[in-house]
Amino acid sequence: MTLALLAPGLGVLSCSRSPADASRATASAATPSATAPGTVRHGDHNPHHGGLVMMKGDDLHYEIVLDPAGRAHRVYFSDAVREDLPAAVASDVRLAIHRPNQPDEIIAMQIDDAGESWIGSGRTVESPRTTTVRVAFSIAKEPYWIDLPFAQPSGR
Q1: ∠ CA(113), CA(119), CA(122), 5° rounding?
Q2: Structurally, what CATH architecture does the domain formed by 44-150 represent?
Protein backbone atom coordinates (compact mmCIF):
# COMPACT_ATOMS: atom_id res chain seq x y z
CA MET A 1 0.00 0.00 0.00
CA THR A 2 1.43 3.36 -0.97
CA LEU A 3 0.98 6.12 1.55
CA ALA A 4 1.37 9.77 0.78
CA LEU A 5 3.46 12.46 2.32
CA LEU A 6 1.37 14.77 4.44
CA ALA A 7 2.59 18.09 5.71
CA PRO A 8 0.00 20.01 7.73
CA GLY A 9 0.10 23.70 6.95
CA LEU A 10 2.20 23.35 3.81
CA GLY A 11 -0.78 23.93 1.53
CA VAL A 12 -0.10 27.65 1.76
CA LEU A 13 3.19 27.05 -0.03
CA SER A 14 1.50 25.49 -3.01
CA CYS A 15 0.11 28.59 -4.63
CA SER A 16 0.02 32.16 -3.46
CA ARG A 17 -2.63 33.36 -5.89
CA SER A 18 -6.32 33.52 -5.19
CA PRO A 19 -8.62 31.89 -7.77
CA ALA A 20 -9.61 35.37 -8.98
CA ASP A 21 -5.95 36.37 -9.45
CA ALA A 22 -5.26 33.11 -11.23
CA SER A 23 -8.25 33.65 -13.54
CA ARG A 24 -7.03 37.14 -14.45
CA ALA A 25 -3.50 35.85 -15.09
CA THR A 26 -4.90 33.09 -17.31
CA ALA A 27 -7.12 35.47 -19.22
CA SER A 28 -4.19 37.76 -19.94
CA ALA A 29 -1.76 34.98 -20.86
CA ALA A 30 -0.97 34.85 -24.55
CA THR A 31 1.34 31.88 -24.40
CA PRO A 32 1.02 28.37 -25.78
CA SER A 33 0.35 27.21 -22.21
CA ALA A 34 -2.79 29.34 -21.99
CA THR A 35 -5.62 27.35 -20.51
CA ALA A 36 -8.87 26.16 -21.99
CA PRO A 37 -12.07 28.02 -21.06
CA GLY A 38 -13.15 27.14 -17.54
CA THR A 39 -9.68 25.92 -16.55
CA VAL A 40 -7.92 28.00 -13.91
CA ARG A 41 -4.15 28.12 -13.57
CA HIS A 42 -3.21 26.93 -10.08
CA GLY A 43 -6.87 26.10 -9.41
CA ASP A 44 -6.17 22.41 -8.77
CA HIS A 45 -3.82 21.40 -6.00
CA ASN A 46 -5.55 18.11 -5.30
CA PRO A 47 -3.26 15.09 -5.44
CA HIS A 48 -3.88 13.01 -8.58
CA HIS A 49 -1.69 10.15 -7.34
CA GLY A 50 -2.29 10.16 -3.58
CA GLY A 51 0.68 12.36 -2.68
CA LEU A 52 1.50 15.93 -1.74
CA VAL A 53 1.32 18.59 -4.46
CA MET A 54 3.88 21.38 -4.42
CA MET A 55 5.02 24.03 -6.90
CA LYS A 56 8.29 25.23 -8.35
CA GLY A 57 7.91 28.68 -9.77
CA ASP A 58 4.68 29.70 -11.44
CA ASP A 59 4.30 26.99 -14.06
CA LEU A 60 5.36 23.66 -12.58
CA HIS A 61 3.56 21.43 -10.10
CA TYR A 62 5.09 18.26 -8.74
CA GLU A 63 3.50 15.54 -6.66
CA ILE A 64 5.51 13.46 -4.21
CA VAL A 65 4.18 10.03 -3.25
CA LEU A 66 6.19 8.36 -0.50
CA ASP A 67 5.91 4.72 0.52
CA PRO A 68 6.78 4.02 4.17
CA ALA A 69 7.59 0.42 3.15
CA GLY A 70 10.27 1.93 0.88
CA ARG A 71 9.26 -0.06 -2.20
CA ALA A 72 7.89 2.65 -4.49
CA HIS A 73 8.56 6.33 -3.89
CA ARG A 74 7.35 8.41 -6.89
CA VAL A 75 7.55 11.97 -8.21
CA TYR A 76 5.11 13.20 -10.88
CA PHE A 77 5.25 16.50 -12.77
CA SER A 78 2.40 18.61 -14.17
CA ASP A 79 1.98 22.07 -15.64
CA ALA A 80 0.22 25.17 -14.25
CA VAL A 81 -3.25 23.67 -14.85
CA ARG A 82 -2.18 20.19 -13.62
CA GLU A 83 -1.95 18.57 -17.04
CA ASP A 84 0.48 15.66 -16.74
CA LEU A 85 3.99 16.25 -18.04
CA PRO A 86 6.33 13.45 -19.08
CA ALA A 87 8.83 12.48 -16.40
CA ALA A 88 11.64 13.50 -18.75
CA VAL A 89 10.76 17.16 -18.15
CA ALA A 90 13.01 16.81 -15.10
CA SER A 91 16.44 15.31 -14.56
CA ASP A 92 18.61 14.29 -11.61
CA VAL A 93 15.60 13.38 -9.47
CA ARG A 94 16.59 12.03 -6.08
CA LEU A 95 15.35 11.74 -2.53
CA ALA A 96 17.35 12.00 0.66
CA ILE A 97 15.51 10.39 3.54
CA HIS A 98 16.67 11.69 6.92
CA ARG A 99 15.93 9.51 9.92
CA PRO A 100 16.95 10.72 13.39
CA ASN A 101 20.39 9.51 14.47
CA GLN A 102 21.11 7.77 11.16
CA PRO A 103 22.95 8.74 7.99
CA ASP A 104 20.75 10.04 5.20
CA GLU A 105 19.52 7.47 2.73
CA ILE A 106 20.01 8.77 -0.82
CA ILE A 107 17.60 7.35 -3.38
CA ALA A 108 18.45 7.93 -7.03
CA MET A 109 15.20 7.86 -8.96
CA GLN A 110 14.63 6.49 -12.47
CA ILE A 111 11.89 7.17 -15.00
CA ASP A 112 9.25 4.42 -14.83
CA ASP A 113 8.53 2.17 -17.83
CA ALA A 114 5.53 4.29 -18.88
CA GLY A 115 7.57 7.53 -18.78
CA GLU A 116 5.02 9.11 -16.43
CA SER A 117 6.90 9.41 -13.15
CA TRP A 118 10.23 8.99 -11.43
CA ILE A 119 10.38 5.94 -9.17
CA GLY A 120 12.84 4.67 -6.61
CA SER A 121 13.03 2.32 -3.66
CA GLY A 122 14.83 2.24 -0.36
CA ARG A 123 14.55 1.08 3.21
CA THR A 124 11.40 0.97 5.30
CA VAL A 125 10.61 4.19 7.19
CA GLU A 126 9.81 3.00 10.70
CA SER A 127 8.98 6.44 12.15
CA PRO A 128 7.39 8.65 9.46
CA ARG A 129 6.52 11.38 11.99
CA THR A 130 10.18 11.94 12.91
CA THR A 131 11.58 11.46 9.41
CA THR A 132 12.08 14.12 6.74
CA VAL A 133 12.77 13.88 3.03
CA ARG A 134 14.68 16.16 0.70
CA VAL A 135 13.20 16.09 -2.79
CA ALA A 136 15.68 17.29 -5.42
CA PHE A 137 15.52 17.60 -9.20
CA SER A 138 16.61 19.82 -12.07
CA ILE A 139 14.37 21.53 -14.60
CA ALA A 140 16.03 23.08 -17.67
CA LYS A 141 19.39 22.48 -15.95
CA GLU A 142 18.29 24.54 -12.93
CA PRO A 143 18.68 22.57 -9.68
CA TYR A 144 15.91 22.67 -7.09
CA TRP A 145 15.32 21.02 -3.71
CA ILE A 146 12.95 21.19 -0.77
CA ASP A 147 12.87 19.50 2.65
CA LEU A 148 9.52 18.11 3.76
CA PRO A 149 8.19 15.97 6.60
CA PHE A 150 7.61 12.32 5.76
CA ALA A 151 4.33 11.24 7.41
CA GLN A 152 1.38 8.94 6.83
CA PRO A 153 -1.84 10.59 5.60
CA SER A 154 -3.74 9.59 8.74
CA GLY A 155 -1.19 11.48 10.83
CA ARG A 156 -0.40 8.34 12.83
Answers
A1: 135
A2: Sandwich (2.60)
